[in-house]
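In the current project phase, we have settled on a layout for protein records. One protein thus recorded is set out beneath this paragraph:
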Amino acid sequence: MNKELIRDTYLSRNKVKTLKHAEEVAETAVWLAEIHHLDAEKARTAALLHDISAVMTPQEMYETAVERGMPIDPAEEKYHFLLHQRMSRIIAEEQFGIADDDILSAVECHTTLKENAGPYDQLVFIADKISWDQEGVPPYYDELREKAAESLEEACFFYIDYQFTNGLLLMPHKWITEAYEELKNKRERMIEDPNAQMI
């Protein structure tokens, strides 16, 4: 993957802050990939491309989704910027020639996660939350980072549960709701059967 081309794409639309965020997420993604014995380059590529749709405005994202006949979640209908994860997948595939399903899927669900998420989905989702794009340090940072080093799936549950419990989601997307229910059900089964595995 031509990392300079990715970098230049962000910079061509003056998305310096977004590029910095993507590079920080990539560093975290590589760290997690090495811990969990996943492909570090796949993780890095997905992380660098996860917000590539920043070159579009939310309105452009919405118009593109409508033009392509894509199903639009009520949360995306109200908050068009939520489409950015799906638009980033399209750009990664069509403009950067990414064909790896692990990378494309991880890019596509990095904000909301989704049901039946794979390890790269979980990894990029968590890397994005650890290396968040707001000022300061998130209140969950230390615990999320610790959990992520132990289990990506546990970290995903912790983060999503934190969001729901504290009412931090503007309007829950169907994907994050489904992911949350699935992870809760897995945890309940583990409580009933301590020998069961999260993954």
Summary: The first helix runs from residue 3 to 12. The chain has eleven helices and no strands. The mean pLDDT is 94.
